[in-house]
Each structure stands twice: as C-alpha cells, then as structure tokens.
Amino acid sequence: MVTATLTEVAKMLRPGVTTLALDQMAEQFIKDHGGVPSFKGYGPSSNPYPYSLCISVNEVVVHGFPGSYEVKEGDIISVDCGFYKDGYHGDHAYTFAIGEVSPELSQLMRVTKESLARAVSAARENNRVGDISFTVEDYTHRQHGYGVVRELVGHGVGKRLHEDPQVPNYGRRGDGKRLKEGMVLAIEPMINLGTHKVHTLDDGWTVVTADGLPSVHYEHTTLVRKGAGENLSQFGPIEEAERQNPNLSKAHL
Ligand code: MF3
Ligand code: CO
C-alpha cells in the first residue's frame, strides 16, 4: 500500500504542483484504500506531525511539511509515506528529480539507492544490525565521499511505526543485535551531497543540511530472510510511473 501511494505521487509530480496537493491526494488515496496515514498525528502531543506525507525538497533532509511550495524544474523531491492497515505499518520513501538535474545530483540519487539495495541484501538472518549500517556508510561515504546523516536512523517497523532495533546508516560490521528471519526493518539511508551535519527548523520537524547542499532519502520496509532481506515495499511500480512521467528525470534510473 505504501508502494501504491508513492506510485500515485509519482504520476502527479510536475512543475507547478504544490506539495500540499500531493499530500492531500495521498491522504485521500490512503483513506480510500482502508488505511490510516501513519505519520499524521505522530510524535509529541505538544507538536504532532501534521501531514500524511513528508515532502523534503532539495536541502531538506527529511520531515519536510507539505505546503504552498510549487515544485519546479531542477528540484529533487523526497517523498516519505506511512500506511497503517490491518494492524501494521508500512514505511517507504523515494527521491524524485524534476526535469533536468545535474550529473552530480543524479549520481547522489543512484548511489544512495544502490546503498539501500546493498543494505537490504545484508538484512539476512544471522547478520547483525551493524552489517546493514556498515554497508550504507561504506558505499556512500567511504566509496563516494557523501555525508551520512547521523541524527536520524532506520528502525524496526510493524505494529508500531517505530520499533526496536534502531538501524543507523553508519556503524561497524558485526555490531548490534543479531537478525532473525521474520523481523521487519525500515532501512532508510539519508545521504547528503556535502556535510553530514543537519539542523532542525523552528517548526520542530523540518530537518535541513547545515551547508544548504541537497540531500536524498530512500526507504524500504524489509523482511529479514535467510539468504538476504526481502522488500515488502518495492521501487518497481514507482520507477515505472517515473519512466512514464515526462516531467521526471530518468537520469538516475
Ligand atoms: N520514515 C520516517 C521515519 O521513519 C517518517 C516519520 S515522519 C513522522 O521516521 F512524522 F511520523 F515522524
Ligand atoms: Co522510517
């Protein structure tokens, strides 16, 4: 269901659409399919998350508020969706490029997506959480020099949106909790073109890069299996919608 929702977002993305319009469509789609948006109302009762999607544009890392912002050519737009149905949450994110983007950005997207694929392979029984973390950091930072966000991490997901264990995008092989078949993890690299440093805006949610350079975010809900992790969310239908939408860049696909 999270894949289906993000696929609808992929069809609607084009210059001029507001991020609030995307959020409203997604909220309706979730409700029409018997679900509840996991994110809306989540968090401290003094400042609960107010929307169904997180839409994080360019230098916004995660938890961007949908609003009157109009998507424009050259933007990269990370869309994160939580869908609750029949007692379980799905959590899924994807970064889209609008129109032409620089080779630099296209590579950042490609490398981050690949780091997630490698991390999913590492989510196999008898590996440890640190093997997933190491895989992301090694590929994105050591091999490509990107900044790995440290303040936010992946997580167990299931009856609650955030469950143990935490799944950082940095760490050491062989560290942390041992993985068992049947565990479900949200693995979510948040990778910056420049510094790994981030800060949170006064709204208490929006996380931005400290240097103002762009950041991307991909996330899967992944089942731990014997030989490798298996994704319950899938990029396939989203990428297909992306290929068919002339407003989206295919450079990173
Ligand atoms: N995928 C993000 C996470 O797992 C989205 C959470 S938004 C929130 O943390 F509002 F629900 F916090
Ligand atoms: Co998540």
Structural class: alpha+beta
Query: What does the average pLDDT come to?
Result: 98
The N- to C-terminal Cα distance equals 22 Å
The helix count comes to 5
Report the CATH superfamily.
Answer: Creatinase/methionine aminopeptidase superfamily
The helix content is 25-40%
- Overall structural domain count: 1
Rg (CA only):
17 Å
pLDDT < 50 runs, ≥5 residues? none
Major sheet strand order: 8-7-9-14-15
Please summarize the sheet with the most strands. 5 strands, antiparallel
N to C succession of SSEs: HHEEEEEHHEEEEEEEEEEH
Strand count: 15
CATH architecture: Alpha-Beta Complex
Q: How would you explain this protein's 3D organization?
A:
A hairpin with a 6-residue loop joins strand 7 (154-156) and strand 8. The strands form 4 sheets. The protein has a 5-stranded antiparallel beta sheet. Strands 1, 2, 4 and 5 form a 4-stranded antiparallel beta sheet that branches. Helices cover 27% and strands 25% of the residues. The model has no long low-confidence stretch (mean pLDDT 98). Helix 1 packs antiparallel against helix 2 (19-32) and helix 1 (2-12) packs parallel to helix 5. It has a single domain (2-244), classed as Creatine Amidinohydrolase (Alpha-Beta Complex), CATH 3.90.230.10. It has 5 helices and 15 strands. The protein has 253 residues and is α+β, with helices and mostly antiparallel strands. The longest helix is centred in the middle third of the chain and has 20 residues, at 103-122. The protein binds 2-amino-4-trifluoromethylsulfanyl-butyric acid (MF3) and cobalt (II) ion (CO). Cobalt (II) ion is lined by residues 91, 155, 186, 188, 219.
